[in-house]
Amino acid sequence: MTDDSVPDHDPGAREFLVVAHTGRENVIETIEAIARRCAAADVALRVVDHDTLDRDAPDHDVLYRNNEGDSPRPPNVPVDPEYLRSLGAVVEVTTAESASAEGCELVIVLGGDGTFLRAAELAYPAEVPVLGINLGHIGFLAEAEAHRVDEVMNQLIARDYRIEPRMTLDIAIVDPTDPDPPTACSWALNEVAVLNTSNNGVLELVTEVDGRPVSAFGADGVLVSTPTGSTAYAFSAGGPVMWPDLEAILVVPNNAHALFARPMVTSPRSRIAVEVDKNGRSALALCDGRRALDVPAGARVEVVRSERSVRWIRIDSDPFADRLVTKFALPVTGWRGRQA
């Protein structure tokens, strides 16, 4: 399912939000390239204050040598709005909140999968599309690698891209004795992990699909994942890899103390519930590894497909099968394919 339409913005009012991983060595050069391209195309930049320079830091005036000679740039701080402005870019600094991406044409993510999920928190409520440029190790969520930044920026500025919706999950913590309203709610692009908060023993859980019990077991927890998240935590827990354009919900027990607790792939229209034994331990529902919800003993974690998607920018990158082989270094020696 693909939405090929690109929003028709006023060319004089274009703005890109950049979210950066501050610990990557090549992030400074990458964001410089973005700033130069945007300045030349009259595209404004918006950066998050979390990623910006503390102007009072004592090492602010340390000199760096680049291709144009020495210039004052602070070490280990990737986003210096003043320096980017000196390159000709129009730069606005915003706070990291739900309205941060409103009015932007798109969000550019510089980093790995963790940075992408942080950026998705800003793009999701504003329904702004996201593109990842990988500066990390695996970077499964990224659409391009850092060495392609000039090519990528040419395509973004020319609006030579398409937008693909990726399904997300709505998560609710419910008290069965008083279910309306839920005690807490959130969402997830990758997965919600229902986890044991104790280092001792296991969580006693019952999984439910569409109002019917399916399996009871003790475990470290259980993961409810989207196809996008099937290559993340769910993959590490033994779940199958699902192609991201598939529409389904994946349920994966995490270190289950049971013979027949196996992953399940359910309909995208299913309502999944995980009940925590009322006589056992409490749990934690962790959404994309970032948003934590308390799950008291006896409570339920209810999960359904969200009506809202994360809008994913595609720039005709490698097929998903090639990405699997590359990111996980899968052995394909001996493959010949169809012979002419």
Q: Any overview of this molecule?
A:
There is one protein chain. The chain is of the alpha+beta class and 340 residues long. Helix content is 16%, strand content 33%. The chain has helices at 27-40, 81-86, 113-126, 149-157, 233-236, 320-327, and strands at 15-20, 44-48, 63-66, 69-72, 91-94, 106-111, 130-134, 144-145, 162-166, 169-174, 184-188, 191-196, 203-209, 212-219, 221-225, 249-254, 264-266, 272-276, 283-287, 291-295, 300-305, 310-314. Strands 5-2-1-6-7-8 form a six-stranded parallel beta sheet, sandwiched between helices. Strands 11-10-21-18-13-14 form a six-stranded antiparallel beta sheet, with no helix packed on it. Strand 19 (283-287) and strand 20 form a beta hairpin. Helix 1 runs parallel beside helix 4 (149-157). 39% of the residues are buried. The model is unreliable at 59-68 (pLDDT under 50).
Number of strands: 22
The separation of the N and C termini measures 32 Å
Label the overall shape. Answer: globular
Q: Which band does the percent of strand residues land in?
A: 25-35%
Succession of helices and strands? EHEEEHEEHEEHEEEEEEEHEEEEEEEH
Helix content: 10-25%
- Tell me the major beta sheet: 6 strands, parallel
User: pLDDT average, as an integer?
Assistant: 88
Q: Would you tell me the structural class of the helices and strands?
A: alpha+beta
- Global Rg: 22 Å
Helix tally?
6
Strand order of the largest sheet: 5-2-1-6-7-8
Q: Low-confidence parts, pLDDT < 50 over ≥5 residues?
A: 59-68
